[in-house]
């Protein structure tokens, strides 16, 4: 109960600061995933067209994914210096794998009959992509974006070590303070809530945007891919 009282007191005294870092944390995560989507979705479409290069692309993105986040930040910091841009670039690199993989999976999983129907109607390749392939693959692509955003929110917390701010600042401050459990929770709880809310919102957006419904009117579970 004592920790809860300290937590409540911290929020009462520093609510504005926590809210500011909350939005800073979210924006860094969102920008990293947005830039990864701009690059990753076209890359996924490209390797779905030229599948011989897919192995190389996945090998590179898998290697990036295995690099510890702190090591990635340290290397990028040497090039870009301190600040939010270093974190955003790191999130961009980490978000590429789920976005590219899901885009690729969504495109190659489309039944050939749908593509042939589009061609039979006189559609160009670009029209088939825009009007057939992307709508049918949308739920899988959205699942990749959803995964990337949740991962990015967690990684952004360590951006404090390169001077980027965010809720990680509060967590680190608590870890360095005497009896800082309440301060750690003051940063950790909003971070967890952000990840849960982002996941729910992206799941809702996935269902709303997907034109593919099953017999009960629900979108198939793209997370199973």
TrEMBL record:
Bilayer-crossing regions: 26-48, 69-93, 136-162, 182-205
Compartmental location: Cell membrane
Topology with respect to the bilayer: Multi-pass membrane protein
Pfam families xrefs: BPD_transp_1 (PF00528)
Superkingdom of origin organism: Bacteria
Principal cellular location given in the protein's record: membrane
GO terms under biological process: amino acid transport; glycine betaine transport; transmembrane transport
Keywords on record: Amino-acid transport, Membrane, Transmembrane, Transmembrane helix, Transport
Domain ABC transmembrane type-1 as annotated: residue spans: 22-202
Gene Ontology cellular component annotations, sorted alphabetically: plasma membrane
Entries under SUPFAM superfamilies matching the protein: MetI-like
Family: Belongs to the binding-protein-dependent transport system permease family. CysTW subfamily.
Protein name stated in the entry: Osmoprotectant ABC transporter permease OpuCD
Organism in which the protein naturally occurs: Bacillus sonorensis L12
């Amino acid at each position: 109960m004592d920790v809860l009282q300290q937590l409540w007191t911290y929020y009462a005294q520093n609510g504005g600061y926590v809210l500011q870092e909350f939005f800073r944390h979210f924006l860094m995560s969102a920008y990293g995933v947005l830039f990864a989507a701009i690059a990753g979705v076209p890359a996924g479409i490209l390797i779905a067209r030229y599948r011989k290069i897919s192995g190389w692309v996945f090998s590179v993105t898998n290697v990036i994914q295995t690099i510890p986040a702190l090591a990635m930040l340290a290397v990028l910091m040497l090039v870009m210096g301190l600040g939010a841009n270093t974190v955003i670039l790191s999130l961009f690199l980490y978000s590429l794998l789920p976005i590219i993989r899901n885009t690729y999976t969504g495109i190659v999983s489309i039944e050939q009959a749908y593509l042939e129907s589009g061609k039979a109607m006189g559609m160009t390749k670009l029209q088939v992509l825009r009007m057939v392939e992307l709508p049918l693959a949308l739920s899988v692509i959205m699942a990749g974006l959803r995964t990337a955003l949740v991962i990015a929110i967690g990684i952004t917390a360590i951006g404090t070590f390169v001077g980027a701010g965010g809720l990680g600042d509060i967590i680190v401050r608590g870890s360095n303070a005497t009896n800082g459990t309440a301060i750690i929770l003051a940063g950790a709880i909003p971070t967890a809530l952000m990840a849960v809310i982002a996941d729910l919102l992206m799941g809702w957006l996935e269902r709303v945007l997907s034109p593919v419904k099953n017999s009960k009117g629900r979108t198939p579970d793209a997370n199973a891919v």
